[in-house]
Amino acid sequence: MFTGWKLSILGIVIVGITGIIASYLELITSGRAIALFIVFVLFIGALELLERIKNRSKKKKEGSSK
């Protein structure tokens, strides 16, 4: 199944397609859809960054305890 960065990319694609469809059907303005997409991408980026920091600190702790 999808995990890690693959899940993030899948989420970004789904949100992007949904934003395009919503603005095409005039459910939301295109400017607002773009802004919400950017906020979502920044949120996913922050989560990925936090995950990398967490994994890096785990590796340092495992290496120092040996």
From TrEMBL:
Key words of the record: Membrane, Transmembrane, Transmembrane helix
Residue spans crossing the bilayer: 7-25, 31-50
The protein's name in its UniProt record: Uncharacterized protein
Lineage, highest ranks first: Bacteria, Bacillati, Bacillota, Bacilli, Bacillales
